[in-house]
Amino acid sequence: MLIKNKEEIKRVLENDGVIAYVTDTVWGLGCLPSSEKAVKKIYDIKKREAQKPLILMSNETYHLLNYVQIIPKTGQKLIKKYFPGALTLVVKKNPDLTPDYITSGMATVGIRVPDNEVFKEICEIAPGHVLATTSANLSHQPSAKTYEQAKENMEGLADLVIDDYGCFCKGLESTVAGIFDDDEIKIFRQGAIKIE
Question: Into how many domains does the chain fold?
Answer without folding.
Answer: 1
